[in-house]
Design goal:
This is PEP-CTERM sorting domain-containing protein. The chain is 23% helix and 41% strand. It is of the alpha+beta class. Helix 1 packs across helix 2. The longest helix is centred in the first third of the chain and has 24 residues.
Length: 210
């Protein structure tokens, strides 16, 4: 019994250490919400991931779509997946794009996270992901706002790690961007803290009995 408890404690302490390491090194997932209640009709949501030829390889993973998403208008050949199930865009060979019909008048939202070692790879070329709303003729932006949101993937330069620079819409209150908490290891971490406290209480009782 005691050995089993010690094994569980060791596992949970390892999980706590991994959780701390994950918090330091992992890139965040972002939730993007676009308020189109001030507009009506149909539009095109363009998702574009661009990079110079020398940029570190990276991917943009989008899922958790919510809102009135319609059919695909156009997409580059290497885009994987579909909306709303989830899509992956890469930055190789100039990058990928996906243009999707949407119905305005409500909220559109999705989660986005980036993969690749761009933040820890020495480089001078960044990558840029942008989400933009166009009219269906692709002749202008909805609300004349430019990109709804842009994510610049900054590389490591002169030993200084890079990261992600987020720029929200120029049109006030249209786009909301917030980091998504990473809950996957939290239950184990909390369990570890509980078991550690229990173990210390039992040790204290044993000392008092002696």
């Amino acid at each position: 019994m005691m050995q089993n408890l010690k094994n569980r404690l060791a596992l949970c302490l390892a999980a706590l250490a991994l959780l701390a390491s994950h918090a330091v090194h992992a890139l965040p997932t972002y939730h993007v919400s676009v308020d189109t209640r001030g507009f009506a009709g149909e539009a095109l949501l363009d998702l574009t991931f661009l990079a110079n030829a020398g940029a570190t390889p990276a991917s943009a993973v989008l899922d958790n779509f919510s809102g009135a998403f319609g059919a695909t208008f156009d997409a580059s050949p290497y885009v994987a997946g579909t909306i709303p199930a989830g899509v992956v865009l890469g930055n190789r060979n100039g990058g990928d794009y996906l243009t999707q019909y949407v119905r305005l008048g409500g909220w559109l939202s999705f989660d986005i996270r980036f993969g690749g070692a761009f933040a820890t790879t020495e480089n001078i070329d960044a990558s840029l992901f942008a989400a933009t709303l166009y009219n269906t003729g692709l002749t202008g932006h909805i609300g004349d706002a430019g990109s709804l949101v842009e994510f610049a993937l900054l590389p490591q330069v002169d030993g200084i790690p890079g990261g992600i620079d987020v720029t929200a819409s120029a049109l006030a209150s249209v786009t909301e961007v917030s980091p998504v908490p990473e809950p996957s290891m939290l239950p184990m971490a909390l369990t570890g803290l509980g078991l550690l406290g229990l173990h210390r209480r039992r040790q204290s009782k044993t000392v008092r009995k002696r």
